[in-house]
Amino acid sequence: MHRRWEAFRGESKEEKDLLFTAKKSKLFQFKTQLDVFLPNNKGEVPDFKVKGGYGESSCSILLGDSNTMLAQMHRLHSLTTMILDSDSFGVTVYPNVDYAFIVALVVILDEINADRSGED
């Protein structure tokens, strides 16, 4: 299972186009927690944190080590999603927060969950 994800601008893999790096906080954890670092952050304190868990059907995206909420995600449960065995999410993004960034973090959580359940 991956412990580190890198997001780049476009199709690039060059360091100058790195947008952010997300790392699992701990090797073994019951609740998913990601530390997200911007390219110029060489320290230990992340720029953003994703707390909660995909498996728990919700998560919060916070600014650094603070309790400042940037977005919240929760899984939507309906008869349609159960019949089709598909996932639907509700995401609340707070003002002045980049929607694409939040979606990228939700996709990473989806990949972590797929790895856990053995899906492709």
Layout of helices and strands:
Blueprint lengths: L3 E5 L9 E7 L9 E4 L10 E6 L4 E6 L5 E8 L2 H6 L3 E6 L5 H19 L3
Antiparallel strand pairs: 1-2, 2-3, 3-4, 4-5, 5-6, 6-7
Task: Give structural attributes.
alpha+beta; Porin; 2 helices; 7 strands; LOR_sf; Tubby C-terminal domain-containing protein; LOR; Tubby-like_C
What does this structure look like?
This is Tubby C-terminal domain-containing protein. It comes from Salix brachista. InterPro entries: LOR, LOR_sf, Tubby-like_C. By secondary structure, the protein is an alpha+beta fold. The protein has one domain (4-117): Beta Barrel (Porin), CATH 2.40.160.200. It has helices spanning 79-84, 99-117, and strands at 4-8, 18-24, 34-37, 48-53, 58-63, 69-76, 88-93. The chain has a seven-stranded antiparallel β-sheet, with helices on one face. Strand 4 (48-53) and strand 5 (58-63) form a beta hairpin. The radius of gyration is 15 Å and the shape is globular. The mean pLDDT is 83.
Short description:
This is Tubby C-terminal domain-containing protein. Belongs to the LOR family. The mean pLDDT is 83.
Q: How many beta strands in the DSSP annotation?
A: 7
Structural class comes to alpha+beta
CATH superfamily: LURP1-related
Round the mean pLDDT to the nearest integer and report it.
Answer: 83
Cα-atom radius of gyration: 15 Å
Q: Can you tell me the overall shape? A: globular
Termini separation (Å)?
12 Å
Question: Into which percent range does the helicity of residues fall?
Answer: 10-25%
How much of the sequence lies in strands comes to 35-45%
User: What's the order of the H and E elements?
Assistant: EEEEEEHEH
Q: What low-confidence regions span 5 or more consecutive residues with pLDDT below 50?
A: none
Q: Give the oligomer, counting copies of the same chain as homo and different chains as hetero.
A: single chain
The biggest beta sheet reads:
7 strands, antiparallel
Order of the strands making up the biggest sheet? 1-2-3-4-5-6-7
What is the CATH class? Answer: Mainly Beta
Total number of helical segments? 2
CATH topology: Porin
- Compute the number of structural domains: 1
By CATH, the architecture is named Beta Barrel
